[in-house]
């Protein structure tokens, strides 16, 4: 018996044009940052009217594949996976999902870390070192700011963002695109998780106190550099699950 919901959907003309343009971009006919033909040229190329082309271009703009510049034309965008996931994060981020973040991080980040130990290049290490420096600077600025400082909220957000970028760098050092994409998909829930545990870690610190979070992040750098997976794994898991400063 054939199910009634297995109907073949007919594609509209704008959707067909949209698919053809995407296919051309994937095949390298038009490359990143390259201007594509005008509406009139595309209409002639695909044998449709300009209104149909315009609707297809609007859809591709919404998807972030093209950028139409008024008075100039449409250009192929450099696709930013992280930016795309951030823009839709509110559609999938729930309280229940946040409860799963630590477990997810313990699986994905530890494996990224293991591969980083094996595959990290000198350039990777330099970038991670820069991330450690940024995090140490930003969290120190927050701890040293007076409690009534108007910028304290901004400083908290800044060191949290530095924390996220440091862990994102480690995921990219795995040189496994699927693992990196997995981290990017979960980046916004991870950011919320880091904000929660980050607050717990610094809420009792006073100016001049030792900032163990900064020390732990440097340990991640050193253990990758020295190819000491077990030591780094322990630090990383404690970092993900610890809630005290």
Could you explain how this protein is built, in words?
The protein has 2 domains: 13-76, Winged helix-like DNA-binding domain superfamily/Winged helix DNA-binding domain (Arc Repressor Mutant, subunit A); 85-241, GntR ligand-binding domain-like (Four Helix Bundle (Hemerythrin (Met), subunit A)). Helix content is 68%, strand content 3%. The protein has helices at 13-26, 39-46, 50-62, 81-87, 89-92, 95-99, 101-119, 122-144, 152-172, 177-185, 187-202, 212-225, 229-241, and strands at 66-69, 73-76. Strand 1 (66-69) and strand 2 form a beta hairpin. The termini are far apart. Mean pLDDT is 84; it is low at 87-93. GO terms for molecular function: DNA binding; DNA-binding transcription factor activity.
Give me the secondary-structure topology.
Blueprint: H1 13-26, H2 39-46, H3 50-62, E1 66-69, E2 73-76, H4 81-87, H5 89-92, H6 95-99, H7 101-119, H8 122-144, H9 152-172, H10 177-185, H11 187-202, H12 212-225, H13 229-241
Antiparallel strand pairs: 1-2
Helix pairs in contact: 1-3, 2-3, 7-9, 7-10, 7-13, 8-9, 8-12, 9-11, 12-13
CATH topology of the largest domain: Four Helix Bundle (Hemerythrin (Met), subunit A)
Strand portion, in percent?
under 5%
Distance between the termini: 62 Å
Which shape, going by the Cα principal axes? elongated
Number of strands: 2
- The low-confidence parts are 87-93
Classify the secondary structure makeup into a structural class: mainly alpha
Order of helices and strands: HHHEEHHHHHHHHHH
Number of helices: 13
What's the gyration radius in Å?
23 Å
Q: Summarize the main sheet.
A: 2 strands, antiparallel
Instruction: Quickly count the domains.
Output: 2
The CATH superfamily of the largest domain turns out to be GntR ligand-binding domain-like
Q: How much helix, percentage-wise, in residues?
A: 55-70%
Q: Class of the largest domain, according to the CATH hierarchy? A: Mainly Alpha
Average residue pLDDT: 84
Output the strand order for the largest sheet.
Answer: 1-2
Architecture of the largest domain in CATH?
Up-down Bundle
Domain HTH gntR-type: 11-79
Keywords: DNA-binding, Transcription, Transcription regulation
GO molecular function: DNA binding; DNA-binding transcription factor activity
Pfam family, one: FCD
